[in-house]
Amino acid sequence: MPSRLLKAVSEGPRPRINRAPLPIVARSVPWVSVMLGSLLPGWLFMASAPYVPPLGFLTLLAWRQLRPGLLPVWAGLPLGFFDDLYSGQPMGSAILLWSIAMIVIEAIELRFPWRGFALEWLLATAMIGVYVVASLGAANATGGLGPGGGAGAAVHPCGADLSLRRADRRGA
After folding, report:
1. How would you class 5 by CB atoms within 10 Å of its CB: exposed for 0-12, middle for 13-18, buried for 19 or more?
2. pTM exceeding the 0.70 threshold for the entire prediction
3. Measured distance CA(46)–CA(17) in Å, rounded
């Protein structure tokens, strides 16, 4: 019975190209990378305003457009919940917005099975813009200061006036 070393030398090296990845790795990498993307803005530095883009949402869009069948449509719910836990947004905002984004991407994939580069970028740009504006609306609806408060007060006098009115309404 030959040893493993002799067998490995006689067979030669295993091919590294065109090998299928392990199924557990192929299924878990998108989920873990989206969760790490949700955690990353809080690791860089703590700030009172969102200086870092929503990296979790960007990673979700990238995986969904790169490999459409890897993340199911319902993945927006648990991944959005994880993002809500760590992003500081009101609970449920990312759950709703990520789920809507996944449904919209699925509907567009069904409507246009052969998408091109321009359609992918147009879709991602529109989704990111809507996500940022809707997140701002959700934060302002729950009492956060959006544009017009904080840095907006230093830039424009109308922003300072708006910021003072909001503070008076809240009793600050």
Report:
1. exposed
2. yes
3. 42
Q: Give the number of other Cβ atoms within 10 Å of residue 159's Cβ.
A: 17
Averaged pLDDT score across all residues of the chain: 80
pLDDT tens sequence across 68-92: 888 999 999 999 999 999 888 889 9
Q: Do 60 and 101 meet the contact criterion of CB atoms below 8 Å apart?
A: yes
DSSP 8-state assignment for residue 131: H
Q: Which residue reads 């109308």 in tokens?
A: 158
Q: Is 3 left (phi over 0), alpha (psi -120 to 50) or beta?
A: beta
CA end-to-end span of the chain: 82
Check whether 155 has a pLDDT greater than 50: no
Q: Is 140 exposed, middle or buried (0-12, 13-18, 19+ CB in 10 A)?
A: middle
